[in-house]
């Protein structure tokens, strides 16, 4: 199912229904935040083909709306760092405060990104450098999800990089 930027908020109920109906079979529910429509579509397709339930947002405001409205768990926030308005690191701070169980994977196309370094150091977030291959994305997602599961079992919290 393809969504356009102007109507993604209007599809909350549809996405929530799809995720709720498939959550038993889904590997994880992922909140994907990317302001570039084409990149967002490709990443969403990669994740859905792997079996993840993807909640999609074009910016931080829409992501926060989806986070508030989604009734089930959100296992992973996958967000671009550089976006118009609120940046991905600030979004990750707000999502983490609202949903402590949500792991964070930051994406950046900038090798020397001060915001990315801040997110890694302050949030203990993992990151992946754009552009990436589908396999690299899936490996990074899996590593963050597995680190979260291991930390939950041991009582710790994961930190580090996945790429």
Condensed summary:
Helices cover 47% and strands 15% of the residues. The chain is α/β, with parallel strands linked by helices and 163 residues long. Helix 3 runs parallel beside helix 4 and helix 4 runs parallel beside helix 5.
Plain-language structure description:
With 163 residues, this protein is an alpha/beta fold. The protein has one domain (26-150): Response regulator (Rossmann fold, 3-Layer(aba) Sandwich), CATH 3.40.50.2300. The chain is built from six helices and five strands; from the N terminus they run H-E-H-E-H-E-H-E-H-E-H. The protein has helices at 12-22, 37-50, 60-69, 88-98, 114-123, 134-154, and strands at residues 29-33, 53-57, 76-80, 103-108, 126-129. A five-stranded parallel β-sheet has the order 2-1-3-4-5, with helices on both faces. Strand 4 (103-108), helix 5 (114-123) and strand 5 (126-129) form a beta-alpha-beta unit. It is globular. The model is unreliable at 1-12 and 152-163 (pLDDT under 50).
């Amino acid at each position: 199912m393809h969504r356009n930027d102007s109507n993604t908020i209007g599809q909350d109920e549809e996405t929530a229904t799809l995720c709720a109906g498939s959550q038993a079979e889904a590997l994880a529910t992922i909140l994907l935040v990317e302001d570039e429509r084409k990149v967002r579509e490709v990443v969403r397709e990669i994740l859905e083909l792997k079996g993840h339930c993807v909640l999609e947002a074009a910016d931080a405001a829409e992501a926060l709306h989806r986070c508030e409205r989604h009734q089930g768990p959100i296992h992973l926030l996958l967000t671009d760092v550089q976006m118009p308005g609120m940046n991905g690191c600030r979004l990750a701070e707000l999502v983490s405060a609202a949903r402590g169980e949500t792991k964070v994977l930051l994406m950046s196309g900038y090798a020397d990104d001060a915001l990315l370094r801040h997110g890694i150091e302050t949030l203990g977030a993992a990151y992946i450098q754009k552009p990436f291959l589908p396999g690299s994305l899936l490996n990074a997602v899996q590593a963050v999800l597995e680190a979260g599961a291991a930390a939950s079992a041991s009582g710790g919290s994961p930190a580090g990089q996945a790429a």
